[in-house]
Amino acid sequence: MRAMKPVEWGMLIILSVIWGGSFFLIEIALRDFHPFTVVFFRVGTAAVVLVCAMYLFGQRLPTTLGGWWPYLVLGALNNAVPFSLIVWGQTRIDSGSAAIFNATTPIFAGILAHFFTDDEKLIPRKIVGMLVGFLGVYMMLRPELNGGLSWRGFGQIAVLGAALMYALGGIFAKRFKGVPPLTVATGMLVCATILMLPPSLAVDWPWPSHPSLEAVGAVATLAVLGTAAAYVLFFRILATAGAVNVLLVTFLVPIGAIVLGVVILREVIRWEELAGMGLIFLGLVGIDGRVFAYLRKKATPEKTQGDKPIRPGEDPTRL
Prior knowledge:
mainly alpha; 74% helix
């Protein structure tokens, strides 16, 4: 993994703020809209915005059915299924809790990558990190497992399912290497809109006739900023900094979501959730590995020969 440039760090921080706020916006939208409707308007509005942007910048979407199927799969894995699971999950759990469970995405990605990729195999450090992360998940689920699974427990499991879908989507998205980020995001969201129309009509119809201005504004902001702009930014970071670096956003998203939930929505974060988040973050540090690489580098002293540093493994007798 390479070190990120300042501009990439800036994009990553902006993305984390946007996605941290998305959990807060979902809570506002659910006051007047049903879950499938929230997802449909989220992806549909975002798709319209990005289609307009594509044609403004002279880019084009696929013109054959064969060219569309990868976008259909990505739209299901990255949008339609996980968005639905998260929004439904937030009818049972708070936004901060949902963001913490969503941070398990790299744990699932690490497991899946071992079986579906050639260059991201499991090593002892990653396995230990995953076990620590799953211990954090268990700590958060434990209160809901006593005496049988509650509706709150089902909400937590739904968001975990969304994290698994995101992990699958991240692996599948590797096939879009070389495709402009705007094209990937647009094609994905167009297909997600098509996938979400039937359930929003079959389950949620009739749609609310007089939704509040706050709920409408939340859905619009979620679509334009939290989806259209966020995914263009995500695929831009993925293309320039790589998959390992872009997953750092999972460390930052829950922080913003918890702050907004506690300060504005008056949510209460349980001690099990804070402890679980700490263990998940610790597991993610182990999976990521860069902290350990930095510590090893600092612990390895450089020898010197005259004014020339001699690094470990070099022969000091050769000039």
